[in-house]
Amino acid sequence: MIDRLSETIDAVDITVLSGFLGSGKTTLIRTLLERPDLARTAVIINEFGEIGLDHELIESSEEDLVELSTGCICCVMRGDLQEAIERLMVRQQTGNVFDRIILETTGLADPGPILHSLIYNEYLKSLVRLDRVVITVDALSGLNSIANFKECPQQIALADIILITKADIDPTNVDDLRRELRRINPEAFIYKSNFGMTEVDLFSLNRQQIEKVSENDIDEHSHHHTHSDLHSISLRRKQPIKAVTLTLFLETLAQVLGQNLVRLKGIVYLEESLKTPAVIHGVQHVFHPMSWMADWSGEAPETRLVLIGRKFSLNWVEAVLETIEEEVAQTIS
Amino acid sequence: MTPERFEVIIRGATEIWDVECKVEFMDSRPACLLWMNEHKVSICHEVTSFGNVWRIIGLDGRERVHPSLGSTLSSLSRILRPNQPNARVIFAR
Q1: Domain range spanning residue A300?
Q2: What ipTM was predicted for this assembly?
Q3: Which of A7, A20, A100, A133 is the most exposed place for a label (fewest CB within 10 A)?
Q4: B13: distance to nearest CA of chain A, Å?
Q5: Same domain (yes/no): A184, A244
Q6: Is residue A195 part of a domain?
Q7: A225 belongs to a structural domain
Q8: Which residues of chain A form beta strands (DSSP E)?
Q9: Is the same domain home to A21 and A78?
């Protein structure tokens, strides 16, 4: 740990930018950094390989770039990432030099372990606040990458915002790609991005919009031609759920599904808090602290959970929840 | 616990775990036999005067008794996938 870092420093928002090899991450960063309102942005770049090329491609103030070159960020970086963030924050402490950090992963990274660190590591949480996960997917080769490289659907599953890049070059596959992205991650915002110019300002969405779970059910059978074994299901329940049932349910899911559970997010109608919906958000087996919405905003209260992963069905998840509910009810009575 | 829900849970778990086995479910009660070649694992659920009981008789012939679905699936995972570590959920503070 760098001992010059004060314990009273304000945490800075960090955006994780991932996407498969050649999908346009660096182009996006270059364009973002040209915006006057994003001038006070620090960038952390990780590259896979011995020669860091992306570092050279991004024109920015040297001091605001940190390059991690010790290997793939999801495998070896966590100490390295902490050190990079510390270095930035030491400078922040001395001069308040940036307002946000963008962390660009390698194209071959599974962002899951990175998000675990940012969600769970108490020290990192005191320095940075995970703001959003942005994923780039190439319109030309995205369907092929999804079908042939397990990292690509994994990245998509963890996205808050997905950018379809290079659609201006050949838009032929965009509709199919959009359907496949929607199948893997029905809750992410999907926009097009041409040469780093995005349809919608990436930073205009607030946390509440990003965490919101749609009211539409996911039709598990709507797309017969699929490219990835990742899929999503939506679980809805009008009866309130006891907090202890929720905990046991999440533990059972994590224990049985293991790596097959990639992401879980949703709002929960908790028996102990009927008027305020609880927001849960997990990456694999690590869950954010539960947060609370002010109220149901006029909607009928109900639990809505979206699970993204492999090999499980909605029937199985419902059967597990119903069984745990019965067990808890019997124990209490 | 209906036999139908029991079947959904056990069949789903074996599919999630990629366990190669044949499963024979009883029609009348929540119970089954998992056949792995000539070896078998028996699983059943009962409601007793003191609550739920899940019984598993493993490949070694030993009976394990569990009071909840979570512990039953954990035990079954250890029998069917002895080399696979059990995952735990972590709540960040």
Answers
A1: 231-332
A2: 0.94
A3: A7
A4: 7
A5: no
A6: yes
A7: no
A8: 12-19, 41-46, 65-68, 100-104, 128-138, 161-165, 189-194, 197-198, 231-237, 261-268, 278-283, 286-287, 291-292, 303-309
A9: yes
